[in-house]
Amino acid sequence: MDFFLAITYATTVIIFLYFIYMLLEGIFSNKKGNVNNRTPPKVAGAWPVIGHLHLFSGSNQPHKTFGLMADKYGPIFTVKFGVHQVLVVNDSKIAQDCLTTNDKALASRPKSLAVELLAYNYAVFGLGPYGPYWRELKKIVVLELLSNHRVQMFRHIREFQVKTTIKTTYEKWSKEKMNDSSNFVKIEMKEWFENLTMTIIVRMLFGKELEVQDGKRARKAMTNFFKLLGAFVVADYIPSLRCLDIGGYEKEMKENAKEIDYILEKWLVEHKKKTSCGEKKCEDEKDFMDIMLSLFEDAMDEDLAAFDADTIIKSTCLSMLAGGSDTIVVSLTWTLSLLLNNPQVMEKAQEELDIQVGRNTLVDESHINNLVFLQAITKESLRLYPPGPLLAPHESLEDCTIGGYNIPKGTRVLFNLWKIQRDSIIWSEPDLFKPERFLTTHKDLDVKGNHFELIPFGAGRRICPGISSTLVLLHLTLANLLHSFKITRPSDEPIDMTASFATKATPLEVLVAPRLSLDLYY
Predict the structure, then answer these.
(1) Using an 8 Å Cβ cutoff, are 339 and 377 in contact?
(2) Is residue 436's pLDDT more than 50?
(3) Quick one: which of 230, 321, 353, 414 is 20 to 30 A from 275 by CA?
């Protein structure tokens, strides 16, 4: 009992001190604001200690809450999340200012418990702070792992695995239809996408065919990784309360990090053993871990920017595994959901596939450039349902000016894609699924960070480096799925498009039946 009383007393003292601190800070910041009126609008209703966090409790979706705030305060404003000042950007022109003129000033990432514990103490470069280590790792990833040449080198893996999964689905249909008068079989598509994507990415990264047990273990570890990465951790906003581990997240993160490291270490040791035994691969046979090992073979016992070579290799592979699999699965699930709710669009896409590919072959990557309507569908889906409606947060490295306002060093910056990509000034009927807009009024827009009206993968220095690889697999998978099968909803009810708090697509059950010549499935 004494222990709990002590904890309660300590918590009360900390909260009281924070109350005094926030009160004084509010008084002095208001005085400064009277002298200098070039600060962004501040959202009203902040509470002592926690700031505006109470406005995001319960089932409130942050991107929609920010959107309502933008309607009231304008396209750029600040909120207080615990001890942190957060700038929220809801406009494409201001986003362009941030990610071009102020790109370097806003190039860092804020620290968090999840990135510290789950991402090898910030060694995962996509989540870590801006600096020499980040610049060097990004250069390696872009030039050595995600160049157009490397993407093409793994084409055979993508095509083989997609076609194998299509054929396995046909075999399931062939067996189950014997016991069912219906011509359709039920498939859970989110799991289907997860299995396919994980298999492909693991083969590209580690050159492995996932065994059933290893596959389950890896998928479970990565599912927990994403859940914890998006968790609300009190210590991120009130650091002095970290010792309490409210919610038990720190313990859970350490356990998950240990599990992921066990898997990656096992695969790294396997690669090292093959190398030490004199096994050599030609350049076209190397997987990503092979390439990383060769890059660091002369520095295996040296520290590189505070991280040893093994940590750099494992953390970079984790970055590729996490970034690729989650983005593709979420995007494919939302896209198929939209098509099921708009069957006339799906029929048009299948007509294009019949014309450009033909009904006597499955789709390969050489067909993709000619599938312009399919690409338009993907863009429209990424506009309405980007993998994350809020981009990963940025943090200012120095004082800067954004949208005419003075932004101090250390400010966290959030880009509300949900508001930016549904701006009625730019997009007619912005909430409707209309892929044809990318064949007419918006045909020149791409998703590669060149047009700030549509930046589902970000832009500037912190843009996702794997856009090309992601789009190739996304288009190849969607094209083969639509070309190979008739796909319908299990009921007359439309697919629920309500996103969860973490904006991850929910499980999606569909009915499928073959639509091509049956001999193609063998």
Answers:
(1) yes
(2) yes
(3) 321
